[in-house]
Amino acid sequence: MTEVQTLTHAVISGEIRRILFDSGDGRYAVLRLADGSGAEHVLCGPLCGLAPGQNIEAEGRWEKHAEFGNRFRAEKFRLRLPSTPEGIKRFLGSGAIPGIGGRTAEIIVDHFGDQTLTILDRFSKRLQEVPGIGPKKAEAIIQGWRESAARRESYIFLQGLGITPAYCARLFRQYGERAPDVVRANPYRLAEEVDGIGFLKADEIAGALGIARDSVDRMAAACVYTVNTLVGSGHVCCPEPELLRQTAELANQKPERASAGLEAALERGLLRRSDGMIYTPLLLRAETELPKLIAALATARRFAGQSLRPLAGETPVVLNAGQLAAVEGVSRTPLSIITGGPGVGKTTVVGEIVRRARAAGVPLALAAPTGRAAKRLSESTGVTAKTLHRLLQFDPATGRFTHGTGSPLSCRLLIVDEVSMLDLLLAQALFRALRPGTSVVLVGDADQLPSVGAGTVLASFLASGWFSVTRLTQIFRQAENSRIIVNAHRVNRGQLPENLPLRPGELTDFYWIEQDDPERAVELIEKMVVERIPARFGLDPVRDVQILTPMNRGSCGTISLNARLQEQLNGGDRPQFKLGERVFRTGDKIMQISNNYEKNVFNGDFGRLGRIHFKEKKFLVLFDDGRLVEYRFEEAEQLSLAYAVTVHKSQGSEFPAVVLPFLTQHYMMLQRNLLYTAMTRAKRLLVLIGSQRAVRMAVENARLEPRFSLLTERLVELRRRCEEAFRNAP
After folding, report:
1. Is 512 helix (H, G, I), strand (E, B) or coil?
2. Residue 615 has pLDDT above 80, yes or no
3. 295-320 burial, b for 16+ CB within 10 Å, e for fewer?
């Protein structure tokens, strides 16, 4: 890893001589600055929107960088206009002022000298005195200078509120020249509308503006922030008393002020109240609509599954009793769930359903939440499977899925794999796109982690009574030879994995290396990935080996491990660019960490970073499904290095080899379903690095973190009403 030694806090001022790098998104720039003595220094940090010739005063710290030497890391800066003719020439000629280029700047400054900026500010009509500048050109220069001056004053005002230059750039991208007026009117609006500015940052800005701590605007924003924070943790809603408690605690105000804020948020339509719960409007609509969509499918008199029959004249596929019940259940009910752990034959069941559907001529579609899961489904069935987002076809122009209530999918049988990943909003979008008479088969492992997004959809479906549920439990003989599968089932039953003794030179697919010292564990991980696994199993350390870890932070977290593995596996003189403190290199293993509908790439998609075009500030990513996608440098915030990813981010994926650190330092995350999910991601090899204590803590912790949601209750209640209406029908 690159060593950086940070020194004491300092202030530096001077004239910008050259911009060495600008990320383009307002977050990071590198520049060369000459101080009052003429000595030049390299500055880095949120220094965007500057130009050569400008004078600045920056606050920050000196640091010694092993690769770049001494440099000044700026935390904030203030603009100072240049005072010397040479500095004024560089400033005006830098392109910072529309209408003034290098030659024009030179003749203006030669005419007015060090009074040039005063002339532009106060006596701008005198520009016509300059040879070669007529009335039209003078007016263009004056207009450009005024716009530049207004932007400078806005930056000074916003930075005076504690808003960093990087956030200033975001505000101007969002609101244009109205940015200062928006901030003055209601800084809490920023928390809802500007990426990266949450309630806490907006609250700082409001404090600088003198807004009262108990104001209704502040408390309404605190309520919205609290709900959104819970949604980010997987909750769909929040009980009203709990919301008021958390909001009062967050804002350090009395509960009655939180109540006033909640009523304001409800009145403004920012939140919704239903059955004692508080929702965002989007999630309340989803939770109330989804049961109706389920009921419409479940009550169809004719559905596609009724056409599925055993194939005549072919050697029948050998199925055990549970598998046969799962296949035949599709013919008896339009809604089916097939669940079970690894090695119990879910793939065989899906293959048989697909064969029967194709023989019967039933139009079918196969889908999964992630690209890797869709690819596996395609390979196992011989039928092309798509991700759910691609199946539903998001339209960037409208911000909606193409397929929905008014434009349903053409399939009559839909099979969806890895449904433990299905969150509430995606489930709503999916079932909106299905017409009555469509048969739906959901396949997944109910014991895995719930979805990253809001809700516990699979658990609610299983408990609702609307679906025919088959739980496969018998492990097939070939799967019994896999220590990965056997040990995953042991963990799921609350037992420790078995680490069987091996003869010298004997290989297996499961190893448990007992270690709880984080630094020693990191050394073991590096050795496994870089040396031992490639040498002993012939697997590529980047393409085939995946580190899964419970957390992002810590020495065995994704951030630290990715930095170390990047240097080990993809170091050297490869082309690279920086976004903030993150380095991206050609050849890096990366993962998309947010949905980008315009590029048709989604959260959890893996790929490799390809060619970097420095002049255009763009780069290419080759994703695992073969698509080549172009990004701008600032869009790299949508990506992360993926040599190591969290267990949550690995859902829906399988990897030839998994290295899994599981230490007591991860105690907050040590749960049975997390360990089980991580183990079931490994296909050919699993190396567990952790102490008995840590693994035992996880195995014995089967308590599921509750998620606030009323989906189960709404599904059950609607089913009760439907059954009652059926009984009372004439």
Report:
1. strand
2. yes
3. bbbbeeeebbbbbbeeeeeeeebebb
